[in-house]
Prior knowledge:
The complex is a heterodimer. By secondary structure, chain A is mainly beta. Chain A is 0% helix and 52% strand. In chain A, the strands form two sheets. In chain A, strands 2, 4, 5, 9, 10 and 11 form a six-stranded mixed sheet that branches. The chains are: A mainly beta, B mainly beta.
Amino acid sequence: QKEVEQDPGPLSVPEGAIVSLNCTYSNSAFQYFMWYRQYSRKGPELLMYTYSSGNKEDGRFTAQVDKSSKYISLFIRDSQPSDSATYLCAMASMNSGYSTLTFGKGTMLLVSP
Amino acid sequence: DAGITQSPRHKVTETGTPVTLRCHQTENHRYMYWYRQDPGHGLRLIHYSYGVKDTDKGEVSDGYSVSRSKTEDFLLTLESATSSQTSVYFCAISGGAGANVLTFGAGSRLTVL
């Protein structure tokens, strides 16, 4: 079993839809959870960062962590064509000063006008 | 990609030739990383550095070496490039209060013929 599982998609939705992106993981030592967004031919950029279980909201984006189920989600409300990108989940086990993140393989999202 | 510059951005080379990719940061962050990104594999850590002349291997380090002689520069060298090293290479940095948060460069696309 891979440490982090993420459906590669593509996930196609119409503009305005609510999008749910998910990752599951097997390592219970993971404590820090991130979502990165990567546009085509660009580097990943941090979208959301969470430490504890529960929800964190930032504008149209909500990150949800359920440590008991080893499951994290990213919700996008009122999706826009500009949200079309690949979304990578990432996790880390401890803040030792440096970060050896474990990444999911990414889910490609396509939002059509 | 504020604060991180990768060069070259694109390179085509032949099997057996040496290749050096450069990452330059202006953020004065302690930690620097080299990842490669391939379809079906996602982002994989090659090497990372936790200070000047302090480096360590990641999960896919075979065939790669790194050097860091200054805080701002982290070099990735392929001593004898192979076709399996055709990939997009990303440099990342982290440090300070957000040590678990990586900031990525724009990427270097390498093709080995």
